[in-house]
Design goal:
- α1 (7-31) packs antiparallel against α2 (38-61).
- The chain has helices at 7-31, 38-61, 102-111; strands at residues 63-75, 81-86, 95-99, 113-115, 118-131, 134-143, 146-155, 160-161.
- The longest helix is centred in the first third of the chain and has 25 residues, at 7-31.
- Strands 1, 2, 3, 4, 5, 6, 7 and 8 form an eight-stranded antiparallel β-sheet that branches.
- By secondary structure, it is α+β, with helices and mostly antiparallel strands.
Length: 168
């Protein structure tokens, strides 16, 4: 039923929504049509119903969601930071981020656990930025409880792997 291409979506959700919005505009007009201020009430009701109609479109324009992920980080000899991000330690779904930032490498060395050549971060805070349900970018905000001085951001063309785990 919630498939956007489904015809039942039109009959079950969209048409009753349009009818409700139309009634929101018409009911105040009929209740105060004999009064002096009826014109203002009618225009206000129409503006309010238009706002209610466009609210889902406005809300979908820019969505930001916070995620707590596990990171397995590697720092190469050249200083390249390779972050493999997963929902949990044992999860196979992951995406990889690459950064050349020496500040990020130093923050990882300071706040992460080192074990057999990798740095483990159990609670990294990411923010995913969506526009109309399409992922635009991912930002690393915190490593554990430590807020990073700079926010590190990657666009979707820099992400390697599955980003389905970031869907809100």
């Amino acid at each position: 039923m919630f498939d956007i291409r489904s015809e039942s979506l039109l009959y079950v959700l969209f048409l009753p929504f349009i009818g409700t919005v139309a009634l929101l505009a018409l009911i105040p007009h009929y209740l105060v049509r004999a009064k002096k201020f009826s014109k203002y009430v009618t225009y206000t009701a129409i503006l309010l119903s238009c706002f209610i109609f466009f609210l889902p479109i406005i809300r979908g324009f820019d969505g930001q969601y916070t995620h707590h992920l596990f990171i397995d980080a590697e720092i190469t000899a050249q200083g390249t930071v390779i972050l493999e991000c997963r929902p949990h330690f044992g999860d196979s779904r992951s995406f990889i981020l690459v950064s050349e930032s020496p500040e990020l490498a130093e923050a990882i060395k300071t706040h992460a656990e080192y074990f057999k050549g990798s740095y483990f971060i159990h609670d990294a805070v990411f923010q995913s930025n969506y526009r109309f349900e399409k992922l635009q970018s991912v930002e690393l905000l915190k490593i554990g409880s430590k807020r990073l001085v700079n926010d590190y951001s990657w666009t979707t063309d820099k992400l390697q792997g599955t980003t389905a785990l970031l869907i809100p």
